[in-house]
């Protein structure tokens, strides 16, 4: 076969392969219960799962890494009893993420998402430790953190999910920072299949922007929790984002 035809065939196969793989990228909508009725968290979790949530995003704050406090592993353990089958993504906004790996696994966490900024002295060690427990590994970056710093970690194959914060972590109800989208695109262009999660100010009005950049795990707090019809909001957001991602895969 002439070289140019061989090259063309190879390129075509690669294109078809990457297109098919991109189609495998599933959009998942994960309500954050930060702005839910914290006095009735168990029922709020049940309500979100009954509304069709793909997972629950649980924001743990220690009053040190961020200037706010929420809840820890004893509460997570109680919530696990209320929604035994829900996938729990623990967003650990804590200064010592090494300390809570065991307790959170014991409490029933499915994914342990720590902040790069809190673990930069031993990021690989922490990722390995989480992996060993059987939990999935997430790593998050604050808005001011350059995404380049986590690329070596992503090359390690230890990371299941990258969390790009689209607000300053620590409070719910903040305005979405669209200027974080280039970070999402930068990761998606290098890692076609990794889960990329966005968190902060995301709702039906901007979920398309997130998906266009390449995000497939969509955390949404207020927009879902306070919705008159959370089922419809979740369905709508998932459909919009999946459509954008599928179209993107055809263009590639
Ligand atoms: Zn979060």
Automatic annotation (TrEMBL):
<feature type="binding site">
    <location>
        <position position="199"/>
    </location>
    <ligand>
        <name>a divalent metal cation</name>
    </ligand>
</feature>
<comment type="pathway">
    <text>Carbohydrate degradation; pentose phosphate pathway; D-xylulose 5-phosphate from D-ribulose 5-phosphate (non-oxidative stage): step 1/1.</text>
</comment>
<keyword id="KW-0464">Manganese</keyword>
<dbReference type="GO" id="GO:0006098">
    <property type="term" value="P:pentose-phosphate shunt"/>
</dbReference>
<dbReference type="InterPro" id="IPR011060">
    <property type="entry name" value="RibuloseP-bd_barrel"/>
</dbReference>
<keyword id="KW-0170">Cobalt</keyword>
<dbReference type="GO" id="GO:0005975">
    <property type="term" value="P:carbohydrate metabolic process"/>
</dbReference>
<keyword id="KW-0413">Isomerase</keyword>
<feature type="binding site">
    <location>
        <begin position="170"/>
        <end position="173"/>
    </location>
    <ligand>
        <name>substrate</name>
    </ligand>
</feature>
<dbReference type="InterPro" id="IPR013785">
    <property type="entry name" value="Aldolase_TIM"/>
</dbReference>
<protein>
    <recommendedName>
        <fullName>Ribulose-phosphate 3-epimerase</fullName>
        <ecNumber>5.1.3.1</ecNumber>
    </recommendedName>
</protein>
<keyword id="KW-0862">Zinc</keyword>
<feature type="binding site">
    <location>
        <position position="91"/>
    </location>
    <ligand>
        <name>substrate</name>
    </ligand>
</feature>
<feature type="binding site">
    <location>
        <position position="57"/>
    </location>
    <ligand>
        <name>a divalent metal cation</name>
    </ligand>
</feature>
<keyword id="KW-0119">Carbohydrate metabolism</keyword>
<comment type="similarity">
    <text>Belongs to the ribulose-phosphate 3-epimerase family.</text>
</comment>
<feature type="active site" description="Proton acceptor">
    <location>
        <position position="59"/>
    </location>
</feature>
<dbReference type="Pfam" id="PF00834">
    <property type="entry name" value="Ribul_P_3_epim"/>
</dbReference>
<feature type="binding site">
    <location>
        <begin position="221"/>
        <end position="222"/>
    </location>
    <ligand>
        <name>substrate</name>
    </ligand>
</feature>
<feature type="binding site">
    <location>
        <position position="91"/>
    </location>
    <ligand>
        <name>a divalent metal cation</name>
    </ligand>
</feature>
<feature type="binding site">
    <location>
        <position position="201"/>
    </location>
    <ligand>
        <name>substrate</name>
    </ligand>
</feature>
<dbReference type="GO" id="GO:0004750">
    <property type="term" value="F:D-ribulose-phosphate 3-epimerase activity"/>
</dbReference>
<dbReference type="GO" id="GO:0046872">
    <property type="term" value="F:metal ion binding"/>
</dbReference>
<dbReference type="InterPro" id="IPR000056">
    <property type="entry name" value="Ribul_P_3_epim-like"/>
</dbReference>
<feature type="binding site">
    <location>
        <position position="32"/>
    </location>
    <ligand>
        <name>substrate</name>
    </ligand>
</feature>
<dbReference type="InterPro" id="IPR026019">
    <property type="entry name" value="Ribul_P_3_epim"/>
</dbReference>
<keyword id="KW-0479">Metal-binding</keyword>
<feature type="active site" description="Proton donor">
    <location>
        <position position="199"/>
    </location>
</feature>
<feature type="binding site">
    <location>
        <position position="59"/>
    </location>
    <ligand>
        <name>a divalent metal cation</name>
    </ligand>
</feature>
